[in-house]
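Hi R.,

Here's the chain you asked about this morning:
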Amino acid sequence: MVAILLFIPFASINGNKISLKESKGNGEGIIYVGGNGEGNYTTIQEAIDAASNGYTIYVYPGNYNESIVINKSISLIGIEKEGERPIIDGGGNRTAVNITADGCKIKNFKIINFGDFSDWPPSEWGMSIEINSRNNLVENNIIQCNWDGIRMSSPNNMIVNNTISKAWWTGIVCWEGNNTIIYNNISHNPYAIGVDPGGSNNTVAWNIITHNYHGIDFIESNNNISHNIISYNRQGGIMFSHGSHNKILYNEICHNGQEGLIAADTSYNIIAHNNISSNGRSGIVLKSAYSSPLITYGNIIYRNMIAYNKDKGVYLLGSGSNNSIVENNIVENGINARFSFYRHSYEGHPYENTWDRNYWSDWRFSLPKPIFGRIWEPFRHKWVVFDFNPAMEPYEI
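And here is the predicted structure, written out as tokens:
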């Protein structure tokens, strides 16, 4: 008996090997683009146009210079071969990929789109992916462009494990809610993640957000921002405003150029179990605009490590009341805590906030810890509030 060993090369799709023996024709529900197989399509859009809902389109490595519209519920999967993956180049059109059908998947591509900014406002923006539908998955792509990397104008989408860089504006932007953004690496963008009005109930977790101008910036409510590494951004780590009931939990917010976290004109948020350290200005700032009736109210700052920030550890600015700063480690900041309040017709006075059971690196007594600040109206004068029960040992954060 003679054994014959056949060598069949393989490629990878999200870690699963598939045969690279060029496909001949297209099986029912499966279409191929590129490669040398008989019946394979030469452009991705031709394959989409030929597909029906539920089809899977596999795309071989190569350069695909086209702006595609995914208007059917399909899976578009790039085949990685010898470290190369297919490249979709939008060529300066408004989008490289526009998803208009529900329930689509796009995985394993490099998607680029660099538009023309010679006129302002630009008619061709150069977005990589725009999502105008629901229940889509964008996973394991490399995304570069000169406007928004991924723009979601619809809810209930998942953005998972992508590398997003070189956007002219925002890496990922949400204009709607109930989206999930997890395990992405987002760097070298003006804004890493932006959640605009309408973008409530989003989950932003387990992302690495570094070397952007701004980290996460959002204006809405009921968002969950957790377990992210937000470091070495030129401006701030997280800034949010005009919403409520957000949860900022278990993040590493360190080594950013200015503030670690700013919460402005916002209420009933929980900021807990974060490491907010070594930022270029203050660690946490709760602020209200001088002329704003939207008082910063009812926020909880609990069990955070707030350490080695250059300016202030915790800073209450403008006005605000019923905020609780409890059981934090506030250690070796330029000034561990300070407040500066305006007195005007809106509510808010320093003594209406609670400081309790915090560990202070600059206080070793079991007596109340004073926290100094200023009130600016009707005339400028100094004020003091107290942490009446300062902790004598740091907490496990």
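One quick note: Residues 44-50 form the longest helix (7 residues).

Cheers,
M.
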